[in-house]
Amino acid sequence: MATKADFNAEEWSSIVEAPLLAGMRVVGAGRGGTIRESLAIGKVYAEARKAQGDSGLLDELVASPPAVDPEKLKGAGDIATVSGERLRAAIDLVTEKGSGEDAEDYRAFVLKVAQTAAEAHKEGGFVGIGGKPISEEEQSALDEIGQVVNASGSPGA
Fold first, then answer.
1. Cα–Cα distance measured from residue 155 to residue 75, given in angstroms and rounded to the nearest whole number
2. pLDDT in tens, 82-93
């Protein structure tokens, strides 16, 4: 089982920021609901803190404040490209230095952050009636994140 001590500062920063970038990718995919979706991401972290003990890696991950270094985003391109690249790198790090269980727990956490953000705000409709739980743009972002999560760290990836 991997812990924060198994990674250098730059690697740990990548591991901490990747789930948040995945959530930001979904939030940025559609219009409206940005505040609600951002709060939903925070709730995923809060729930994970309550479930302490299930995964040492995730325990330390959620104990670190979720943050993205804005300096790293300057000139890096759009959030879709940045999130995909950084997520891939983070999963590869966890897969390389952690156990198979660590990698699976991390992948599941990333997907939960993204899915929760997508479901936090109904899209379309009128005054909350008749809207779709997830917009087409958000679903597209979820599909991209799922492809990265499922391909990274796998043999031949």
1. 31
2. 889 999 999 999
